[in-house]
Amino acid sequence: LGYIRGVNKPENIKRLPGFRDFAPQELAVRARTFDAWRAAAQSFGFQEYDGPPLEPVDLYTRKSGDEIVGQLYDFVDKGERHVALRPEMTPSLARILAQKSRALPKPIRWFSMPQLFRYERQQRGRLREHFQWNVDIVGEAGIGADAEVLAVALEGLRLLGLTERDVEARVSDRPLLRAILMALGIPEATHDAVFQVIDKLERAGPEWARERLSGAGIGPAGADELLGLISDAGPEDLAQRFRANDAVIERLDITRDYLERLRSLGFAAWVSFDLTIVRGLAYYTGTVFEIFDRARDLRALCGGGRYDRLLELVGGDPLPAVGFGMGDVVLGELLEERGLVPEWTPAVDAFIVLPDADLRSRGLEVAAALRRGGNSVLYAFSEDGVRRQFKTASASGARFAVVVGPDEVARGQILIRDMGTGDEYNHDLTNILNGTARLGSA
Ligand code: HAM
Fold first, then answer.
1. 373: Cβ–Cβ under 8 A, 6 or more apart, which residues?
2. I need a labelling partner for 125 at 20 to 30 A (CA). Which of 74, 254, 374, 417 fits?
């Protein structure tokens, strides 16, 4: 490639916009997030899975909706297949389960933490790659599964130190909204257009929405009525207003059950009913929710809902499903803002100090024995003064310095110094080498 001018100059190669590097400091933050996500999912009995980062483009073009399809990283591979980097995990999950679900006991409780790729417009909280925690229950149509997945999402945030004062889950129900639209005399053919307007309502504002709705054949009075209802009415107001409408009442009962279950699971204060949440993805068929920071400064941290038709659409058995995706980007911004990103310092268990070059092989034997005993161990690769070695030990965050010196070794011992307290202990070299000694005690 040297003939392309500039390519052979390393300083010309920059990281792609919208992508991140993870130096150890940043990777430690990511790992802590992953640990909390995994712990929350496991405490609810979910099992971890993964799939390929590259998928046939058709998996997305038919099922995800126009917004995501417009952001695909897609190309034709050397075998003439039209492929795409995965922009979301749900279609892969549906594809995997279309093959496997028959053999699995229901409901299936699976989670994953894939890296996803979307060619987004540059904006705060949206990058071109992110890691997204996906938690889904497949094979359960009842509202109990909807409550359970939202509880997992909130538990993950709680484990990271966030509370109901920091975040809010806004929950809605697409069939309820459809029933309300029908009750207001808005024909089914315009529902999708109305959903798209409501999805952009918060960002674009009520004036814009009123104009759009009027354009969709809903008169200005109808638009005002609809916008008023979805912005202000709670489940009780709606029950009152639509008490003669069985379809609305039936979905409201389900919504009440959903909220009641979340209350019993300990998340009442985290959740609020909000009909302005509809979600942009095309496949949702039931409850939908998004989690935001309370101040509403940031974009959504998490989004999910029920999608009962997707497995069938990718060729599997018709199985009901519900789940969510939570990204690491907005979450990271919120944790940072709240001072919930712990200071990161490197740490190892032991640093071998070698005062005498002749004892290097003994020192390496000690390092090997300690490592096999489960300790992380460092030492200097070339000869260095003892003071310098102690300095390096300290800078590496070692809890113990292990001195393999001529006098100690002559007595069949080594010296261990606790770098925190300065306490020193002698250990029998044999016990260290055969792995029976503990670093911390004499
Ligand atoms: P989504 O709303 O497209 O849903 O994404 C879920 C979350 O991923 C968002 O709330 C956001 O935190 C994060 N996210 C999405 N795109 C980006 C981006 N470009 N940069 C940073 N973070 C981003 C889904 O993907 C559904 N498949 C979720 C789902 C799972 N539904 C059911 N199961």
1. 435
2. 74
Cβ-proximal residues to 227 (8 Å cutoff; 6+ apart), any chain: 201, 206, 209, 210, 213
Two structure tokens written together for 142: 């009842």
- Residue type, position 188, single letter: E
Q: Which amino acid is at 417?
A: R
Q: What is the pLDDT of residues 144-201, one digit of tens each?
A: 999 999 999 999 999 999 999 999 999 999 999 999 999 999 999 999 999 999 999 9
- pTM exceeding 0.85: yes
Q: 10 Å Cβ neighbour count for 380?
A: 17
Q: How far apart are the C-alpha atoms of 148 and 133, rounded to whole Å?
A: 15
Q: How far is the CA of 84 from the centre of ligand 1 (A)?
A: 17
Q: Name, in order, each residue with C-beta under 8 angstroms of 253's C-beta and a sequence gap of 6 or more.
A: none
Q: Determine the pLDDT at residue 314.
A: 87
3-class secondary structure, 23: coil
Query: Ligand 1 pocket, 120 CB below 6 A?
Result: yes
- Our answer on whether the CB atom of 287 is closer than 6 Å to any ligand 1 atom is no
Give me 62's structure tokens.
Answer: 């038919």
Burial tier of 21 (Cβ tally within 10 Å: 0-12, 13-18, 19+): exposed
How far is ligand 1, taken at its centre, from the CA of residue 19, in Å?
16
**Phi-psi category of residue 144: left, alpha or beta, with phi > 0 → left and psi -120 to 50 → alpha:** alpha
Taking CA 273 as the corner, what is the angle to CA 145 and CA 243, rounded to the nearest 5 degrees? 95
Joined tokens for residue 107: 């409901």
Q: Is the CB of 134 under 6 A from ligand 1?
A: yes
Cα–Cα distance, 362 to 249 (Å, whole number): 79
pLDDT tens sequence across 43-52: 999 999 999 9
Answer yes or no: are the C-beta atoms of 93 and 110 closer than 8 Å.
yes
55 lines ligand 1 (CB under 6 A): no
pLDDT at 420 over 80: yes
- Asked if residue 297 lies in contact with residue 315, where contact means CB atoms within 8 angstroms, the answer is no
Cα separation of 155 and 302, whole Å?
Answer: 13
Distance, in Å, from the CA atom of 171 to the CA atom of 161, rounded to the nearest integer, reads 22
Is residue 96 within 8 A of residue 111, CB to CB? The reply is: no
Coil/strand/helix, residue 236: helix
Q: Are strands 348-353 and 167-173 parallel, antiparallel or unpaired?
A: unpaired
Calpha distance 241→204 (Å, rounded): 28
Mean pLDDT to the nearest integer, 394-408: 96
Torsion of CA 424, 428, 432, 435, to 10 degrees: -120
Tell me the β-bridge partners of 289. Answer: 171, 304
